Amino acid sequence: MPMQVLGLIHPYIRVSSYFPIDISVENGSALAICGANGSGKTTFLNLLLDELHPQKGIIKIPTEYSYLGIKNGLKPQLTIRQQLSYFMEKQLTFPWPEFVNQPYKDLSSGQQRLVALWLVLNRSAPLILMDEPFSHLDASSAALACSWINAQLGFKKTIVFTHHNPEELRDIKSLQVLDLNG
């Protein structure tokens, strides 16, 4: 079991004071942590990352995971080819060969987010944690990102991410939704 949360209570996750959070996510499944701004989505991720500690409860995740925050975490001056060699454990074929020699900073914010998503999803870690992975993406790019997520679920990875609207995620297979709106 790659991720298990039992009896979680944290003051920044409003709903947890009424209903302690119990959730398990199996290999090959995704969890979308949904809610309005301020509902505790990023706090929940920070608890998983052990950057915050619960008031009560137990959190179990693998020691090896890959993380994508709100900021992409890539080096603006490096080309995509350089980013690939810096961040990837093995050589994979990058889906946009026309961008490989461009500096990351010269891409649009949507293109930058897609590059960061592709990199985090294609790492070898069994658990992938992402904060608002669809930010800056138009509808066709979001659909592409969903197909990448589904491909990684097929490799039995576990993917946990935050998002505002669960209706927009209907194309993701094996998806559980944790709604922090209450």
List keywords for this structure.
182 residues, alpha/beta, three-stranded antiparallel beta sheet, 4 helices, 8 strands
Structure commentary:
The strands form two sheets. A five-stranded parallel β-sheet has the order 5-6-7-3-8, with helices on both faces. The chain is α/β, with parallel strands linked by helices and about 180 residues long. The chain has four helices and eight strands. Helix 3 packs parallel to helix 4 (about 140-155). Helix 4 (about 140-155) links the parallel strand 6 (about 125-130) and strand 7.
Furnish the topology, listing elements before pairings.
Layout lengths: L2 E7 L11 E5 L4 E5 L6 H8 L7 E5 L4 E4 L11 H8 L21 H13 L5 E4 L8 H16 L3 E6 L11 E5 L3
Parallel strand pairs: 3-7, 3-8, 5-6, 6-7
Antiparallel strand pairs: 1-2, 1-4
Helix pairs in contact: 3-4
Q: Beta-sheet strand percentage?
A: 15-25%
Structural class, from helix and strand content? alpha/beta
β-strand number: 8
Largest sheet, if any? Answer: 5 strands, parallel
Question: What Rg is obtained from the alpha carbons, in whole angstroms?
Answer: 16 Å
Give the overall pLDDT as a whole number: 92
Strand order of the largest sheet: 5-6-7-3-8
Helical segment count: 4
Low-confidence stretches: none
Label the overall shape.
Answer: globular
Determine the N-to-C terminus distance. Answer: 26 Å
Order of helices and strands: EEEHEEHHEHEE
- Residue share in helix: 10-25%
Q: What is the compact description of this entry?
A:
Helix content is 25%, strand content 23%. It is α/β, with parallel strands linked by helices. Strands 5-6-7-3-8 form a five-stranded parallel beta sheet, with helices on both faces.
